């Protein structure tokens, strides 16, 4: 059996996912910059998209450096470089999580805005707002799936352990 087929499929899947994520990041930066002054109801929404995109891009670059760019000459240098890159990544991730929560407040607090430019007080450009809204909503969905899977796994393990315990107690009492 050829073992390269599953790995080539996973590689292709990873590349496609990376291209899609990169496209969304670039779109977030572009849409935020293009519509920078077109959301008076919440002027921080375009800023949120720009900063979110830039920092997510930085996280991707730092992660790629961690995966592929370590050309350390000895184990000590590799360790120091790895600790530095992991520390920078952790700080970037922490900032992105805080920024994501802040952006969620900005986006969902004005839902739904007016898409009519004549109502200046409640207006937000439709493309800008809907992109930010769906970006955050999809991100929440992407966060929910692994959390739910982890919860079901923990529940499964707890049920399995609790079902095995009465059997082991019964076998000990019979002996």
From TrEMBL:
<keyword id="KW-0812">Transmembrane</keyword>
<keyword id="KW-1133">Transmembrane helix</keyword>
<feature type="transmembrane region" description="Helical">
    <location>
        <begin position="12"/>
        <end position="35"/>
    </location>
</feature>
<feature type="transmembrane region" description="Helical">
    <location>
        <begin position="75"/>
        <end position="108"/>
    </location>
</feature>
<feature type="transmembrane region" description="Helical">
    <location>
        <begin position="128"/>
        <end position="155"/>
    </location>
</feature>
<feature type="transmembrane region" description="Helical">
    <location>
        <begin position="47"/>
        <end position="68"/>
    </location>
</feature>
<protein>
    <submittedName>
        <fullName>Uncharacterized protein</fullName>
    </submittedName>
</protein>
<dbReference type="InterPro" id="IPR040350">
    <property type="entry name" value="TMEM272"/>
</dbReference>
<keyword id="KW-0472">Membrane</keyword>
């Amino acid at each position: 059996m050829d073992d390269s087929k599953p790995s080539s499929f996973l590689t292709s899947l990873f590349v496609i996912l990376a291209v899609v994520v990169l496209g969304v990041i670039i779109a977030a930066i572009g849409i935020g910059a293009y519509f920078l002054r077109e959301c008076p109801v919440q002027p921080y929404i375009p800023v949120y998209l720009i900063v979110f995109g830039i920092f997510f891009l930085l996280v991707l670059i730092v992660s790629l450096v961690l995966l592929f760019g370590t050309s350390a000459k000895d184990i000590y240098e590799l360790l120091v470089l790895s600790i530095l890159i992991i520390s920078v990544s952790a700080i970037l991730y922490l900032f992105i999580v805080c920024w994501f929560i802040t952006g969620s407040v900005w986006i969902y607090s004005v839902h739904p805005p007016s898409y009519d430019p004549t109502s200046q007080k409640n207006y937000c450009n439709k493309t800008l707002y809907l992109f930010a809204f769906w970006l955050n909503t999809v991100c929440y969905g992407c966060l929910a799936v692994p959390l739910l899977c982890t919860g079901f796994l923990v529940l499964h393990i707890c049920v399995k352990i609790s079902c095995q315990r009465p059997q082991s107690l019964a076998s000990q009492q019979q002996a």
